[in-house]
Amino acid sequence: MIVRTFEVGSDQNNTYLLACEKTRIGAIVDPYLEVPGILQAARDEKIRIEYVLLTHTHRDHCLGVPEVVMATGATVYVHEKEAERVPGEGKLLTLKQGSRVQVGEIILEVFHTPGHTPGGVTYYQPDSAGAITGDVLFVGYCGRADLPGSDPRALWRSLQALAKLPDHTVIYPGHNYGKTPGSTVGYEKSFNPYYQCRTEEEFVQLRLYGKVE
Ligand SMILES: [Fe+2]
To answer: Name one GO molecular function term (predicted).
Structure first.
């Protein structure tokens, strides 16, 4: 699997270009800004963009959808709970827990990981052990749970679900907030402060108020 990372905007957003090495069919994950440059990078690698994959529909993860769809005719994947929030008129396919997305010969497994938003998803590729975690899990940090539609308890459960992935799974977060651009599930379980909480209650206190009583 080819994975290219494009850090865009003032809040270190990550847009990813994913592609199947063999078929050169590709997907853009969370298009926001600088879409022409990302499409050019795909063309330079002879990758044909057929899909847009959204981790969630905050503006800074989907503003670029119409531009990608206009240029490529790509089909957009989004969780069913956030389908109405996708900008533009592209063809939409909705996801839920356990859905599979095929990009060329690559199969991505979909985990519904709500908490930051109701329809947040993580795309997991088992053969290359990679997980695109959106704004659920960052390097050394996790997503906000105080926004409209957020639910800190759901976010705790989503993080616990991701902790069950193999330790060597590489995470590709929605923002580059960490000391390194990427990390692994095992590293985060050991060092991410939100994974050091022993209970849901402790997590909620830390996430919402920045402290544990
Ligand atoms: Fe977000």
So the answer is: hydrolase activity
